[in-house]
Design a protein that fits this description.
Helix content is 42%, strand content 16%. The protein is an alpha/beta fold. This is Phosphatase.
Length: 262
């Protein structure tokens, strides 16, 4: 995969609708912001937000700043956006954290609640970090959560139900992994690279956590704003072809100094 320039990546993100005019409609975004503000834990993605985010407009303001959605509260239907420049800025911040992982030869855990879209992004990043000397955490076997099996494939932890890789926002699978590591007396990861509740749970437990989040999943952006997460990268997390994420991954690994090893 050729490594795109910043400008070329921005063009690609908009063309493939990973950013720019994304598929997630405005009313869906606002509904999720409202549910988070109303205390619906499903939308907290494993974070503990207390009573700090009870105003939907405060949530919208964070999402406009960190994700690039339209900041007009009267814009309630139709199209919404992710700013591709903010996506690339966040990739640069994630790359800086990956460089630290390499410099310190850290233990890194990868996980996804969006295997249909982001599995190979995580897999390629794990391959590159292992080649650079990091330890990729191997999760304990036999773990269950949310009526499914928590297992690892291509170095990435996921939830499986009925022989199907499961799309999940739940923090329970990550909690199961971290609890099992502690029970077995094994060291916890220094860094978690994930999304959804997998990233939120790790950050809430005090583990450095970076991840990807869509414009209808505000919790990780709030976590970054509060310092619970190191990085939340805004993007559409399930576009029509997962290969569309390859230039993004190539840019990330090159920015982290890992492109020749991935």
């Amino acid at each position: 995969m050729p490594i795109p320039s910043r400008a070329a990546l921005v063009d690609h993100l908009v063309r493939t609708r990973i950013a720019g005019d994304v598929a997630t409609p405005r009313d869906n975004n606002l509904s999720h912001y409202r549910k988070l503000a109303n205390g619906d834990r499903h939308f907290w993605l494993g974070l503990e937000l207390g009573d700090r985010w009870t105003d939907e407009q405060d949530v919208l303001a964070v999402m406009a700043e960190r994700c690039g959605v339209n900041d007009d509260p009267e814009h309630r239907t139709g199209q919404d956006t992710i700013d591709p420049e903010l996506t690339v800025d966040a990739l640069d911040r994630m790359a800086a954290r990956l460089r630290k992982a390499v410099a310190d030869q850290e233990r890194v855990l990868f996980a996804t609640g969006h295997p249909g879209g982001l599995l190979d992004v995580h897999r390629q990043t794990a391959d590159a970090l292992r080649a650079a000397g990091c330890e990729i955490v191997r999760i304990p076997g036999g773990l269950m959560a949310d009526e499914g099996m928590v297992f690892q494939f291509a170095d990435v932890a996921m939830l499986e139900r009925g022989a199907t890789l499961w799309h999940t926002h739940s923090p329970a699978p990550m909690a199961a992994i971290l609890d099992a590591l502690e029970r077995e007396g094994r060291p916890l990861p220094h860094l978690v690279v994930a999304d959804h509740g997998w990233a939120g749970c790790a950050g809430q437990r005090g583990i450095d956590s970076v991840g990807y989040a869509d414009c209808n999943d505000p919790a990780l952006f709030i976590g970054e704003a509060e310092g619970t997460l190191q990085v939340a990268v805004p993007l559409d997390d399930h576009v029509t072809d997962p290969r569309f994420y390859d230039p993004l991954t190539a840019y990330l690994l090159d920015s982290a100094g890992l492109a020749s090893r991935g």
